[in-house]
Amino acid sequence: MIINQRNFTGVAVVGAALCLVLLGLRLASAISFAGPLQLVTSGAEYESLFGIWKQTQGLPVYNDRFEAPYNAVMYNWALYKVYGTVSGMVLKTLSLGDAWLPTVGRLFSLLGVAVGTAAAYMAFAKALEARDGTLKILAGAFAVFVMAGPLMGFFSITVTSDIWALTLEVLAAVLFMTLYPGGRWRAVVVAAVLAYLAWSFKQTSIYTSGAIGLFLLLRRDWGPMFIFSGLMIGAWSATLLLGDPQYVFNILLGDYPLVYSIKRLARNLGNFAVKSGPSLFLLTALAVAVLPSRPRRQAMWRKDWVVFGLSGSLTTTLVSIPISSQSGGAENYYFSLSFFLSFLALAALSELLCPEGPAPNTALRPVMAAGALGWGTLIAALVLVLTGFTGVIDVRGQHTAYMGKKACIEGLPQPLFVYDSYLSLPWMTPGAEPYVLSYAYERDRARGKEFEHGGIGGLVGKRHFAAIIMRQGVSLDKLDGTTLAGYTAQARTCAGMTIFLRDDGN
After folding, report:
1. Could you tell me the strand order of the sheet in which 497-502 lies?
2. Which of 368, 371, 364, 381 minimizes the C-alpha distance to 341?
3. Residue 156 DSSP code
4. Which of 475, 467, 474 is nearest to 492 (CA)?
5. What angle separates helix 304-323 from helix 162-179, to the nearest 10 degrees?
6. Rounded alpha-carbon distances, angstroms, from residue 82 to 2, 188, 257
């Protein structure tokens, strides 16, 4: 079959539709309006949930993770302020308990995906110079792929900083490029505000800032470049100078045990490649078609949208790939890279569709074929997930397990310690000290860092806890390096976990 514009778009539409089907199934498993579901959609989501809960209670959000109860709040201020404000208003308005906070937060993340998809569509339609329905549909398919595709996965409904940081970066990019031709100063000011807000959600979200800076540098537009750079550096610096010292220490990852791994980097890059066929195949074919031809290269260079896409792809690659190798790194470090690669691919494709230089007829069909093949690889990957051969669709089972554990913990004497950070959230163990341990707690302990009271192990040694609940799969001889002398294991188990009660004579 000869691949033309209509065929290419048709394959993309199928791929985008499957992306939405998978998102819908995952959404149905993680959110219910019949009752508040308790589960983890990705990563250390419990850390974000606990920080947001503190915001809703009017408590200090940022704390010293070396002081009891050893929590960590590491993302930037907007995550907790915005999610906390929205969640608090919804819970209060609907008279809902704290147990609904994860549901409200996940719905707010989903709203971010919807806004981000609309913004990505605007960016891609303009980059593609979409004037007819077919190209507009193609732009929409790529927007769904970037914001709701398999690379995003469960992050689409995770309570974390990534979604709104990405959405604000996409908005900054499209508004900058839309305003720039007719108002350079207004473009840099609007973009600076949005780029700062993206950074305010996640402190590594500086990708669009880098894209704009490099674009202005390549265009030798010195005035706007210096103004934009000054605005961004000034905003970041003012935030750090005026912020509470604990806030600054936390978001700069002070004394945080980061470990970089080539193995983790290779795994993340491999997953990114498998899930990014539409942009990677199209870009490869465009490079083959364009780079050998000097007239085509010159035509591309004259297009601001191509140069901006290239600027974003370069700066994002230089930042995101190295940091994706660090502790806890996953495909979420490539969300912005996925956007900019798609942006660049569609902007370059528009030059072949509406050339300023030599006629591209001989190059266009192979490029379309490669793009369709890229979407075909994505469709194949989605089908494998949807048919159950790989991946995860349903996480509802976690809720059943957590609620079973919660039920048997209720009534145990306090203070108690549950060796499970999600079960330690305030609405899971009401009234108990929330030992939602830092993601880095065990690594900090292993490297000999000093903790208040000697950490959990020190508290166990002092027989501080009246009850200890040990999760499955861990040694029952010691807890955090301290033997459980003075505690007796109970005959009954707690949904598979072991209950230890402090011996009489405390």
Report:
1. 416-418, 467-470, 497-502, 487-494
2. 371
3. G
4. 467
5. 160
6. 50, 24, 28
Instruction: State the Cα–Cα distance between residues 464 and 265, nearest whole angstrom.
Output: 41
Cis omega (within 30 of 0) for bond into 415: yes
Q: Tens place of pLDDT for every residue, the chain, 506 residues?
A: 456 778 889 999 999 999 999 999 999 999 999 999 999 998 889 999 999 999 999 999 999 999 999 999 999 999 999 999 999 999 999 999 999 999 999 999 999 999 999 999 999 999 998 778 889 999 999 999 999 999 999 999 999 999 999 999 999 999 999 999 999 999 999 999 999 999 999 999 999 999 999 999 999 999 999 999 999 999 999 999 999 999 999 999 888 888 888 999 999 999 999 999 999 999 999 999 988 888 888 989 999 999 999 999 999 999 999 999 987 788 999 999 999 999 999 999 988 887 655 444 577 888 999 999 999 999 999 999 999 999 899 999 999 999 999 998 888 999 999 999 999 999 999 988 999 999 889 999 988 899 999 999 999 999 999 999 988 777 778 899 899 988 998 877 788 889 999 997 55
> Hey, what are 118's tokens?
């609309």
Output the pTM of the full model: 0.94
Contacts of 299 (CB under 8 A, 6+ apart): 351, 355, 356, 357, 358
- Going by C-alpha positions, the residue among 285, 273, 267, 272 that lies closest to residue 328 is 267
Residue 339 to residue 324: CA distance in whole angstroms: 16
CA dihedral (176, 179, 181, 187) positive or negative: negative
Q: Could you give the C-alpha distances from 141 to 25, 123, 240, 384, 418, in angstroms and in order? A: 19, 12, 39, 20, 45
